Amino acid sequence: MATGISRRSLLKAGATAVGAAAVGATALAGCGKSAATSSEPLQFWNFYTPNPLRTPTSIAQGGWFDTYIADWNKKNKQQVQAVFIPNYTNTNKLQTAFAAGSGPDIFLISPGDFLRYLNGGVLMDLTPFMTKEAIADYLPGALDTRMADGKVYALPMEQEPLAIYYSEKVFEQAHLSEADLPKTWEDLLELAKKLQTPSRYGMVFEPVQGYYQNFTWYPWMWQGGGDAVGPNGQSVFDSKAAIQALQLFQDGVNRGVSPRTPVAAGDLPAGLDKGQAAMWQSGIWNVSDFRLRLPKTKYGIFRLPTPPGGRYATIAGGWAFCANKNGRNPEAAAKFCVEAVGSMSPDSVKRVADWCTVAKSDISPRKSALDLGTARGGYSSPVMKKFKDDIYPGTRGEPRYPPVIYKAISDAIQNTMLAGHKAADEAEIAAASIDAYLKSYEGAKIL
Amino acid sequence: MTTSVAPHVSRTKTVATQGKPGLSRKQREGWAAALFLAPDVIGLTVFVGIPMILSFVLSLFQVSGFGQYDFVGFGNYQRIFADPVFMSSLRTTLIYVFVLVPGGFVVSLLLALLVKQKLPGVGFFRTAYFLPFSISIVVVALIWRFMLDEQVGVVNQFLGWFGIPPQAWLGNPNLALGTAIAVTIWVQMGYYMVILLGGLQDIPLEYYEAARIDGASAWSNFRHITWPLLKPTSFFVLLTSTVAALTGAFDMIYVLTKGGPANSTNVLIFYIYQQAFQYGEYGYAAAIGTFLVVIMLICSTAIFLTTRGGRFSYGD
Amino acid sequence: MATETLVRTRRKMRPATVAQFVVAVLVAIFALFPLLWLFTGGFKTQTEASTGAFWPAHPTLDNFVFIFTQVPFLRYMLNSFFVSAIVTVVALLFHSMAAYALARLRFRGRDTVFVLVFSTLLVTAPVILIPLFVIVRELHMLNNYAGLIVPALFNAFGIFLLRQYYITIPKELEEAAIVDGCGHWRVYWHLILPLSRPILASLTVFFFLANWNAFIWPLIVIADDKLFTVQVGLQLLQDQVTVGGGANWSYLLAGSTLTALPTMIMFFILQRRLVESIKTSGLKS
Fold first, then answer.
1. How far apart are CA B28 and CA B10, in angstroms?
2. What is the rounded CA–CA span in Å between residue B45 and residue A132?
3. A370 to chain B, minimum CA–CA distance in Å?
4. Cα dihedral sign for C223, C227, C230, C236?
5. Chain A residues close to C133, C-beta within 8 Å
6. Of C250 and A379, the one with more pLDDT
7. For C219, which residue in chain A has the nearest alpha carbon?
8. What residue in C sits closest to A95 (Cα-Cα)?
9. A50 upstream amide cis, omega within 30 of 0
10. Which of A9, A393, B141, B166 has its CA 20 to 30 A from that of A130?
């Protein structure tokens, strides 16, 4: 039985494939969106509820959503149904759905993803459903990165500023007190060297490539007056400020005081508790984590130190509600988002305060909710008080860079920090690719 | 269990001599073939063929946002060769394939030769070597990320006994790709070992007996008996592991390093994923994907033509 | 297991064999140690889990209790089992049918069909993810078992391997059957399938493993948590690491242990037959 494959059959196979391609071209054009009726419940994709995993944290946070959704469904004809998406941040489920034209009606969005969805034309304008008073209630800077042309497209539920956590135990062993907390970058690295042991890192900067690493790095650049995109939409990345910030991360690794891989698998409370790190740059969310898991561990926080001639700055990220313009019932979806966290109704204000002080440990993005949270004692613990009064002033919202800009900066950070490239060269390369991108960029202002 | 059919049937290959088959029989055979092939052919067409064709169509468009398609013809393909990251990613892919495939093959072959011996507890060893293959890549990555941890990882502790300073296996661009390859070999070694073992056990013992009488060394045994007779199996293993290295690398890189540090493990298949899902460049990603599939198609066609349709035969 | 055999070895081992044995033991340690580390990890406390130590200082069953009481993990395991089993059985049937036609039947365009089938091996998930999603949506298979099962059925690897195997079966047997007036279906069902039992056994293991361990597609196609598979369940446990609420590494390690156990046990039971039977006979002349 001869089973040789002849040239002819290969040619035939090729011809079949080409013929099929022509058919496929017409098929792609016929991929329409399925018209949805408004009688179906609105799909709300999130990563809090209904969460099958039941921990005290997930119960508290999921409960906040459940209460609101039940309340909404009681009062409104248009029902809302929560859909739980595991690993929301790291999987491409949301994008796959939108790319295939079947995105959810309501979803949560982080600043890093904002422009993709806004420029992709899927975000509903929420402004018509809001009062002027409510828009003015947002703290300065808390809403900017979610707006375009004076219109609001997403409503933040929280603000999570970064500071530096330190282990009080390690400080005590080294006979250091609050007076010795570093004020400058050089102090920081020297102190890190002093606290460094073979089994302990002095100062943890985030080493893993990703949105989060960029997020932790931006404030160091801002402190020297630098930025990625200038006011006229041109690249200003190739600057002394950016270079010294890149250099800071590289110095940390080169002096051996900062890790190349996550410490304690990225678990900050465990890392400080076990003495695997002395100082660690991270966000306010660890406060509730310590409270729940390691209430006895003594830790402190301090402001990010500044470079010579620099000004203090930090960064705050946070999730925001938004509605799909092409969804089942976009008006109702918009109203749902506004009523959740963006209305002046007592319920809405209380909801934001509850979220930021009960379910989580965050700074509220709205003045009224921050006042309410403060009045109820949500910021009375020394750490939360310090976050609110000392760390938070000087916060800038997480920038909403499009993916190409994010990636250019990310590569610059990775190449200087871990591959040992020259900071000046990397800043120049990144600036060039940002420039090339901005030349053809059409879309909302990059902040 | 042997795979011989029945002892009384001669195993010589006969080109069946079948008089003159009637037309009806030929037709019947054609119909039967169509019915037998239908489920798989329809399924492969719907779930692989059509998506691939759609993906090719997509590669002719510049996709911006969600649903804006601008026809750009072969513009995306021209972009490929001007993209420095694509070039470095291609280099990474070639290193990955040309280290992993031969390296993995040698390891698996050595293991197969080892567990072919009559060692005490050989069944246990065979099972042990295969077990890593039975757990999911997600779990593999989880285990190794902990074991390779710079501060407290078992690997560095172990090397510390020999005075080797701790390394950041997954945080150092010079080490990360090698580490990913080593972890992949750990997963696959038992699987290919089992296949090669099957091939080794198919070699008739008489050959070795004859060689023993001639007083041949172990090495010459390997060179003159084992290696030539194992060729078809080796070829099969090399082919499937090359395809697996090019296409299956995605899962491992995705869970182990996400292409980092500093893009040092960014293989092509992961770069495609990045372009599509991190930058939203679906058209460009589809172009790179199509390009990759075409390259592999050319390679496998060449293999087909040289091996006469994947029919692995001795000697050429 | 190994030591027992050692005790039972009556003959003295030659130095060469001793050396081989030592190498075999070292490789076994290399293969098994990470798995042992995983199993001990499930018994660590949450704070200890991130430290990478081998032995838990205070072994606890809490993680496993949590996994079964606070997460419907058993349900996920049953989902995975159901999907993997169905896919394995149906895929083996389809693939062996197709392989029979490609190997034993003569018809026009056979080689063309085979080349096209083989070329689908070269297409990978990331390349076709979005079009595939669109097709599955149009077929109304999002968020149900069909969406997990149907796209996973079709893979050329099985067809390829079975065809190689069937080519070697001597023609005479079939001829005799056909002369006796059996139809092709009966030849396939009563002659070819029983003959391919060994190769089907090994493919069963591989298919089951592949489907039990699949994680990207289930995550995209399923939204309802009643349909989660174990791998999605693991993503869920991993999630708590990234979304506030702290790193539950210990839960993740326990969950991973539970995910790995069934496939390991299955292999353990089938290993003898597998190693005996995975003669890639199709590769022989």
1. 28
2. 56
3. 35
4. positive
5. 96-97, 99-100
6. A379
7. A93
8. C130
9. yes
10. A393
B173 at interface of A, judged by CB pairs closer than 8 A: yes
At A81 the three-state DSSP class reads strand
Look up residue A141 and give its two tokens. Answer: 């800077």
Any idea which of A6-20, A136-150, C243-257 has the lowest mean pLDDT? Answer: A6-20
Question: Which residues, in sequence order, are bridge partners of residue A159?
Answer: A363
Measured between alpha carbons, how far is B3 from C65 in angstroms, rounded to an integer? 47
Put simply, the chain B residues between 152 and 181 with a CB less than 8 A from any chain C CB are 152-154
Nearest neighbour of C71 by CB, restricted to A52, A89, A264: A52
Asked if C268 and B52 come within 8 Å (Cβ–Cβ), the reply is no
Which of C9, C170, C198 has the CB atom closest to B120's CB atom? C9
**Angle at CA C186, nearest 5°, toward C183 and C187?**
85
| Tokens, residue A235 | 């690249």
Quote the CA–CA distance of C119 and C102 in Å, as a whole number: 15
Cα nearest neighbour of A319 on chain C: C243
Predicted local confidence at residue C239, as pLDDT: 67
Say yes or no to pLDDT of B16 above 50.
no
Q: Which residue of C has its CA nearest to A160?
A: C244
Look at A89 and C114 and tell me if their CB atoms are within 8 Å: no
DSSP assigned state of C189: I
Angle between helices B268-277 and B84-116 (to 10 degrees): 130
* Chains contacting chain A through 3 or more C-beta pairs under 8 A: B, C
Report the residue of chain A nearest B263, measured CA to CA: A411
B242-257: buried (b, 16+ CB within 10 Å) or exposed (e) per residue? bbbbbbbbbbbbbbbb
Q: Is A294 on the interface with B (CB under 8 A)?
A: no
Hey, what are C199's tokens? 């190769």
What do you get for the CA distance between the two ends of chain B, in Å?
A: 31
Residues 234-253 of chain C with CB under 8 A from chain A are 235-249
The greatest distance separating any two alpha carbons of chain A, rounded to the nearest whole angstrom, comes to: 88
Q: Is B309 touching C (CB cutoff 8 A)?
A: yes
Q: Compute CA distances A235 → A43, A229, A240, A437, A438, whole Å.
A: 39, 5, 14, 9, 8
DSSP string computed for A219-254: HHHHHTT--SB-TTS-B--SSHHHHHHHHHHHHHHH
CA gap B33, C114 in Å, rounded: 12
Sheet holding A155-156, edge to edge: A80-84, A42-46, A106-109, A320-323, A155-156
- Taking CB atoms and an 8 Å cutoff, what residues of chain B touch A1? 13, 15-16
Alpha-carbon span A299 to B151, nearest angstrom: 21
What pLDDT tens digit does each residue of chain C (285 aa) get?
444 444 454 456 677 888 999 999 999 999 999 999 999 989 988 778 877 677 888 898 988 998 888 889 999 999 999 999 999 999 999 999 999 999 988 888 888 898 889 888 888 888 888 889 889 988 999 889 999 999 999 988 899 888 888 887 888 877 777 777 678 888 899 888 988 888 888 888 889 988 998 888 898 888 888 899 998 888 888 765 444 445 578 888 999 999 998 888 887 777 766 666 554 444 443
Nearest to C92 by CA among C196, C168, C226: C196
Output the CA–CA distances (angstroms, integers) from residue B4 to B229, B230, B236, in the order listed: 18, 18, 21
Q: What digits encode the pLDDT tens for the residues A33-59?
A: 444 455 789 999 999 988 888 888 888
